[in-house]
Amino acid sequence: MATNIQAIRGMHDVLPDQTPLWQYAEQMLRDVLGSYGYSEMRMPIVEKTELFKRSIGEVTDIVEKEMYTFEDRNGDSLTLRPEGTAGCLRACLEHGLLHNQVHRLWYYGPMYRHERPQKGRYRQFIQLGVETYGMAGPDIDAELILMMHRLWKKLGIREKVRLQVNSLGTIAERLAYREILVSYFQEHKDLLDADSLRRLETNPLRILDSKTPAMQDMLTEAPALMDYLGVESLQHFYGLIATLTDLRVDYEINPRLVRGLDYYSKTVFEWVTDELGSQGTVCAGGRYDSLIEQLGGKPNYAVGFAMGIERVLALLETVPDLPLARSVDAYMIRVGETAERVGTHLAEAIRDAVPGIKLQVNCGGGSFKSQFKKADKSGAEYAIIVGDDEVRNEVVSIKSLRTEQPQQTLPQAEILAILNTLRAHPAAAQS
Ligand code: ATP
Ligand code: MG
Known about the structure:
The chain is α+β, with helices and mostly antiparallel strands. It has helices spanning 19-35, 49-56, 61-66, 85-94, 138-155, 171-187, 194-202, 216-221, 231-246, 290-294, 309-316, 337-353, 368-377, 388-393, 412-422, 426-430, and strands at residues 39-40, 46-48, 68-71, 77-80, 103-112, 124-133, 162-167, 252-253, 265-272, 281-287, 302-308, 330-334, 359-361, 382-386, 396-400, 408-410.
């Protein structure tokens, strides 16, 4: 006997009973992004491997050990995108979108990283990415943070996330700081774990991010990049802080927030939560002006972030009474051959007359009782009943499946009026 084939480890199906939560969150995201005038971008899921090596950096976790890379039939090295920043920028450069233009873009879709799967960490996961181009000042950095702040409030999870900010300065400032940091770590080499020893050669800033308990005191005492920033970087940073303060968005300055990717400069930020164990970063981003040149463009400005949707949903699941959309508003029961034909006509008439209604028609026959069970199971608000009696008398019956109201038998027009009130229902209005 053939064995069942299962999904790839770390890659998950979203079953129909979970999709309303996803759709709810996705609608909120679209609404918030739309309210700031952002446009959607759609990029391929596969790109040339070279793109990620050049943008993310050879010595990052992603490129070193997490990418799904393969040769296609032509022998070209391709990679399933581990993030969207590189692809979005590649697309904008390729289509000449960055010449004297300003852009506010977002994309939404699966990303792939070969990590050890655990709660909140998967091999296929969904990100909302936001990228903006052409804006130099801290005002756009602040806008991104305000936008997320609005989203958390709208989703009802504002109290579950905290904002951390830091500045990585310019690349020159960071390089100078890197030397100071490396000599500090050299002095404390005995305290470094294996990962950190390796990073000492490749990506020493990332050591600041280490969670190893025995290293924490030493890391707290480490020189802070903020103390080595020039005037321009500091002005940029305090410009952001001033806006956050002005608009009463709480933040913490975390001098050890460095982000894993190579391309950041100046502002970096993360929205973190204490409710998801070590998978605590829900949304992370920052400014990455230099990446545009690195990918062959003219000097320009860029700032963006990416949000892990599974982590947002994990927070959202704990919010009571979410107004999730029903998949079925009304279920039509048809008993008898004539009733089936009449019912099909009626169903089409209902869909014409009640825009947006989710009307499921019983197919495949069955007794009145078994159809009624299916109606109830569908989650519908109403059962619409078409049987021989109804056909003979040119009426339709309707029964509320969620209240004690008795079944009513009414002319078609009155049924339509009742179904039209469904549209005013908050759950139905979500969709
Ligand atoms: P982490 O420190 O959790 O590994 P990261 O620094 O690798 O995160 P980014 O590359 O900045 O993460 O991605 C942005 C967001 O995407 C993260 O904050 C997180 O919410 C989400 N994310 C990243 N990797 C995964 C994953 N493997 N599974 C689920 N979500 C993820
Ligand atoms: Mg990671």
